[in-house]
Amino acid sequence: SREWHLTARPHGWPTPADFALREAAVPEVGEGQVLVRNKHFSVDPYMRGRMNDVKSYVPPFQLDQPMDGGAVGEVIASRDDSVAVGDHVLHGLGWREYAVVDAKRVAKADPSLAPLTAYLGVLGMPGLTAYAGLLEVALFKEGDTVFVSGAAGAVGSEVGQIAKLKGASRVIGSAGSDEKVKLLVEEYGFDAAFNYKNGDVTQQLKDAAPDGIDVYFDNVGGDHLEAAISVLKVHGRVAICGMISMYNATEPSPAPRNLAMVIGKRLRLQGLLVSDHANLQSQFVEEVSAWVRSGELKYSETKVPGIENGVEAFLGLLRGENTGKMIVSLED
Ligand code: NDP
């Protein structure tokens, strides 16, 4: 079985030389464990943080050990009564072809209810992040004007659409290409969108939200957060979900330079970790899967075929080559 190892800790942008695809023996399936043939695995921005040797909310990847992360696959051997051969499961041992997992650490993923990849994206961790971040952290309410950055990505595209479906008066998104901007407005129903590479973010946000914004869902940090602080209304709310513009930075970013505006506007900025919101999981799946089935909520996936392209897929995610969820597919 092949698996990806981190072989050196990147400084700044990771390069292919920091990783190796290695052959490893598949471990014995112990009592209470299952053997899964992975069909798809997830590459996510948070994995960049795990490549640094710093204490964080998820432990760092160990050098010369298999990397891990979300994956879905088919059970091909089971030594636990709760999981049968042929079941499809979601689990945490991605970045490899075969995984031996404790049965209590897998969740059933029913391919008759949704495509398997949906459990990594729209109905999975990024989806719950969008749902919980908007509703429980940003305290979204009907009539709000919402701005979301990284809006053509897995989390951002869902934030914008959930806000619309729950009665936002205006939803604005930013993304890194004109094609993505077009998708946001024409397919996902955003009221306005802009390409942050086309000009000053604050000016573009002011043009898109002449009356200000009530909520900012931050996936990017840096100049986007600064722009939002300038455009937020009094008592505006911010969910700080991610700051991808800084993940490869070798120096701390100076922005937001206007942080003092938080005082006069009485803004509320709150960080968000999806793992705090497991309580919303069943409500989230119920509500969002109904919207997906009815076609009211759309989603994209960018599937990169072949385990050998796993690292390229991850680097592509950091470069913005994905629309919607970035996934490495080991089948088809
Ligand atoms: P995405 O699908 O949004 O993919 C990442 C996107 O980030 C790229 O497609 C790219 O799009 C954009 N990007 C890359 N560099 C920059 C930059 N310098 N400035 C602006 N945009 C950039 O990933 P996810 O939906 O999985 O994650 C989105 C955010 O949410 C990330 O910050 C992630 O860390 C965070 N997150 C946080 C969680 C939590 O619990 N706090 C859980 C899950 C995700 P473009 O072409 O638009 O530049």
UniProtKB/TrEMBL annotation:
Entry keyword Oxidoreductase: yes
Transferase listed as a keyword: no
Domain of life: Bacteria
Domain Enoyl reductase (ER) intervals: 14-328
SMART domains, sorted: PKS_ER
Keywords, comma-separated and alphabetical: Oxidoreductase
InterPro entries with a match to the protein in the record: ADH-like_C (IPR013149), ADH_N_2 (IPR041694), ER (IPR020843), GroES-like_sf (IPR011032), MDR_fam (IPR045010), NAD(P)-bd_dom_sf (IPR036291)
Molecular function per GO: oxidoreductase activity, acting on the CH-CH group of donors, NAD or NADP as acceptor
SUPFAM superfamilies named in the record: GroES-like (SSF50129), NAD(P)-binding Rossmann-fold domains (SSF51735)
PANTHER family: PROSTAGLANDIN REDUCTASE (PTHR43205), PROSTAGLANDIN REDUCTASE 1 (PTHR43205:SF7)
Name of the featured protein: NADP-dependent oxidoreductase
